Every structure is written in C-alpha cells, then in structure tokens.
Amino acid sequence: MKTHRIVTVAMVLASILSISSCVTAQKEVTIFVKFYNLDTGSVFQASSKEYVGTGYSEMSMITDKGVRCSGESSTQAGGYSGTSVGTSRGWGSIYGWGAGGFTGVRSSARSTESYSLSPNDQVGSVVLSCDDKNIIQCEYVVNKHYGHGTGYCTDSKNVRYRITF
Length: 165
Prior knowledge:
Blueprint: H1 2-24, E1 28-37, E2 43-51, E3 56-62, E4 68-75, E5 82-87, H2 93-99, E6 110-117, E7 121-130, E8 135-143, E9 149-155, E10 160-164
Antiparallel strand pairs: 1-2, 1-10, 2-3, 3-4, 4-7, 5-6, 7-8, 8-9, 9-10
C-alpha cells in the first residue's frame, strides 16, 4: 500500500511539473520591421522578438546613422473599429497624424486627423530608446488574420517614419 501511494504521489508531482513547464514556455517568433525615414528617404530594419499569444515583443535596431535603439511593442488583442480621432489618453495621435500625411495639428495632446479601421485590425504601439538619447514612438495597425501591418512613427528630433511588417 505504501509503495502504491509513493508511486501515485510521484506521478502527480511529475504531472504538475510537466504542466507548469508547458505553461511557462512561450513560443518566440522574430518579425522584421522596415523603417522608412520620410525626411531623408533612407530605409533600415528592426528585429522584433514576439512572444506569441501575449501581444508583447522586444525590438532592437541600428538606424541609418548607425545608432543602436531598443525597446518594446504591445498589440491590443481587441483592436478598434470605425473612425477615430487620436487623443493623448489612448492610441491614435501618431497614427492619425501619419494617416493624414503628417499635416494638421500634432502635439503630445492631440492629433486632428481621423482614420478608419476594420474589425479585423488590431492596434499597437512601439517605444524605442536610442543610444544618442533619441526616443522613437510608433503606432501601428496589424491585420489579426494575416499578421502584417503598417504604422507611423515620430521621434524626439521630429523625424517622421513609416513602418511596415
């Protein structure tokens, strides 16, 4: 009887350890993001390590001027639909400004441009800190069925970018 209990307890512990290792293991996928500098026309690429199913990724790149940047991105699973106007309280001030051709009013408080998103779109944000103290902030839309997306960025030096992935 004691042998049976010991074996049973050992099997239960082995199962728990097996399950917990499955829960903590996350699949990682590398996504390449192209940055198009809309002021100079140069193009460079970032590498984004996405943790599948979390909406979170870590990004790193070297800019067209040789400056190293790193940061993170987050995609909202629910997405948006309809027409929205960006505000400082949520997603959209950079994307709306870029979608409007970077015209109109753009400040940290509000974009006056509007844009349209479909129910299949998910929205996300990127923030990158560069070795030269520059901060790049992006907002993007990704199609939840295909995983491809586009977006717009601006940095602390007022450079504008378009991104695709």
